Amino acid sequence: MAPTTATETVEKPPKTEAPPKLSDMEGSIDQITFEQILEMDDEDDRDFSHGIVFGFFDQAESTFEKMEKALKEKKLAELSSLGHFLKGSSATLGLSKVKDACEKIQHYGARKDETGTNDEPDENVCLVNIEKTLLECKKDYKEVEDFLRRYYGESPSS
Amino acid sequence: MSLKHRLLNLSMHDPAQTVNMPLIVTPPEDNDMVLSELKGGANPLQRTNDTAQCDPSLCRIYRYTPMPTIVVDANLCIVEVSDSHLTLSGQSRAALLNTCICDITPHMIPVSDITSLYGAIRAAISTKEIQLIQDIYLKDSKSHFQLQVTPIFQDRTLIYIVFEARKMTRGRSEASDHHTHVNETYKILVDTVKDYAIFMLDTRGNITTWNPGAAILKGYSASEIIGKHFSVFYSPEDRLNHKPEKGLMMCLRDGRMEDEGWRYRQDESRFWANVMIRPIYEFGRHVGFVKVTRDLTERKAAEARLITAFEESSRLKTDFLANMSHEIRTPMNGMLLALSMLTDTGLNGEQLEYASIIEDSTSLLLQIINDILDYSKLSSGSFSLTSDIVSVDSVVSAVVRNCKSCLKTGVELSSSMPSDFPQAVKGDPLRYRQVLQNLVGNAVKFTERGYVKVSTSFAIDAEDPTLFNISTEVADSGVGVPESALNTLFTPFTRFADSTRRRYQGTGLGLSICKSLVELMNGSVGYRPNLDGGGSIFWFTVKMARTDILAPSKPLAGFLAESSENLIKKLRDIAPRKNILLVEDNLVNHMVMLKLLQSFGFERVDAAWDGAEAVRLVKQTPLSYNLVLMDISMPVLDGLEATSQIRSMKIDVPIIALTGNALKGDAETYLAKGMNDYLGKPVHRNHLLQALWKWLGT
């Protein structure tokens, strides 16, 4: 039987590998911060962190929708505040890439450059920047979402 | 009037006369010679009559010649005029005969003006050669003429002068002598120049010639512009200020005039022009101006581009610095955090020593990065001051306390302040502290033995009695400042002290940041050598407002060295008795924070989801909360406004800001708005622990 199992493992790549390791996501998830959340779980289950993480998924998806709507309506201030909002929760979970992107959206929305240091008077430049960053943000989000779903033993959403 | 007198009266300098530049071919010679020759002749009139009587039939030549002709005798008196001339001038023979040619209207002769007529007559008599006056324009018939002046001598005696007018079919005469040849050469040269507008003006400033360069540059064709005044190239304001006329006057006075400024094309577009005007004189008489105009728009635009490029690169540098420091600060903070956790894991002596070295270096790096961030903010002008109550005394003691740890052995650090120094003033405590910290830090760093003394004094501002001028002096007995470095002391990125040996670390930004900060606080900063001990004295003054309110008694953020293990134990002891209000709109953050607080043993945590709810809860039970954890940006009412409202109820519950904005300036705004402390997001367990203990445990 042993040889068969070995073949199967090779054919079915990481998907079934359970559970993925946090350190694989070094660039996207700040390990220390996320572990802090995990530490809050009770010894025998992961109910607390699971609730938080999946709560975040809901929040992120609805925020992205709101951002897209605001982008269409060219509401910069609204975009800035949405960026700030999602930045807060992504930071708490240690989702550093998502957090950074949200921060950029917050700055662009406030008519500033990426770092919030200098003013950017051109509204259209800000909107274009946000559109670009939002795409990246959603990509980064998708990546951590897939990872976290696998981490909590779910199959990744398509 | 005799010819002699008439000639003597000829005026060559008649500034009021405008001349269309007649080309009098042969220059006049010495008057006296002409006159003496005239004197030498026998009775000229007699001779004239004799000749006239010789063959009267020949008189018909001049009467019926088709070329308009006037014949005058030696006294310039008209003795014959042709029918063709009468047709041209429209006069009767009777009106002209026996009249002096000088007394009839010049254009009837025809000649442009009496001066050129005199000139030609003089030249003809003195040289005994035919003279040609060219370019005579008659407005009535709109045609060009040239006048041939032929002196008729019998031996050395002038008997007649014949004036023959020839109508020119082309605009210009075709004289073929050397002069014209030279003129033609120049004309071709001028006509070949395309990059310069070269044209001539008459004495009044009307345009008389026009080259292709001028046509290209100014957009007018020659026929459109010739005869117009050159002020059409100037702006209406310039015209109102009589700039064109003044330019010509200046040109006549100085012999040349050069100017740079906007000029206008026919299509009213403008260009930046370099204009050069020179007067032209002919036989000593002013006949007009030559004007050369160059288009410098390109050069000016290039200059502007250079300036923009320079500003852009300077801005890029600032942005780069800001971005880099921002990017570096995040991992640095992570390192510091991990380090502080590492030191809590029960290290042995050697490990602790290494850890403390890492901590020192990291703190220094962080300080440098913060300096660069400050610098880039200051140089981009996006730096703001906050207004708060300052206790100068406590700031000075805090700085002194802080710097004591860096003192070299055998150096004494002390501070002095007059006993009547105001307890509290209004200003930016953190900026004041930053400057003082920098100066004292420098003094401590550069002093190997002796002392560092901080002395503070105050005076009421002479102009505004509501302001204090606070002067602070930091004197040391250290290495001092070499004379060569005095000029660049406050210039960014310059360091003088042992930079090659890397004995003292730093960015060379400290003093320049101090200078900018002090200037923001309407003060100044300076240096003088310390005569007592050979070190330095750095001083600075700032303006701060008087106030009656006292500064908050609790000192701001300090580094707590206590291990987190110990802290948790101590906090767990007190936590069940404490009531905390958590204000946070983000569900995820809210849940995490609640959980964290629970893990510390807090049992009574009230939740508010926006600022308004928080204010309502505090209002309901003003004394029940021991601490408020307050998010900054929230819907309905933000954290800052909520804090202001809570403070306005005279409730001094400690409020800790939870902020995602990690920038230094933001945090200081929160403190200025009445918050007591702040935690950056993500809130780290240890930080929260320390902040909670700081505000609840002591």
Automatic annotation (TrEMBL), chain A:
Keyword check for Phosphoprotein: yes
Stretches that traverse the bilayer: none
Taxonomic superkingdom: Eukaryota
Sequence ranges assigned to domain HPt in this UniProt record: 45-148
Range of residues in the leader sequence: none
GO CC aspect terms: cytoplasm; nucleus
Region (Disordered): 1-27
One of the Pfam families matching this protein, by short name: Hpt
Keyword entries, A-Z: Phosphoprotein
Identification of the protein by name: Histidine-phosphotransfer domain, HPT domain-containing protein
Originating organism: Aspergillus coremiiformis
Organism placement in taxonomy: Eukaryota, Fungi, Dikarya, Ascomycota, Pezizomycotina
TrEMBL record, chain B:
Family matches, as Pfam families: HATPase_c, HisKA, PAS, Response_reg
Annotated EC: 2.7.13.3
Domain PAC: 257-308
GO biological process, one term: regulation of DNA-templated transcription
Enzyme class label: transferase
Domain called Histidine kinase: residue spans: 323-546
InterPro entries: CheY-like_superfamily, HATPase_C_sf, HATPase_dom, His_kinase_dom, HisK_dim/P_dom, HisK_dim/P_sf, PAS, PAS-assoc_C
Keywords per UniProt: Cytoplasm, Kinase, Phosphoprotein, Transferase, Two-component regulatory system
Cellular component GO terms held in the UniProt record: cytoplasm
Modified residues (4-aspartylphosphate): D631
Domain PAS: from-to ranges: 182-239
Compartments in which it is found: Cytoplasm
Catalysis: reaction(s): ATP + protein L-histidine = ADP + protein N-phospho-L-histidine
Domain of life: Eukaryota
Parts of the chain that traverse the membrane: none
GO MF assignments: phosphorelay sensor kinase activity
Domain Response regulatory, chain residue ranges per copy: 579-696
PANTHER family membership: HYBRID SIGNAL TRANSDUCTION HISTIDINE KINASE J
The protein, known as: histidine kinase
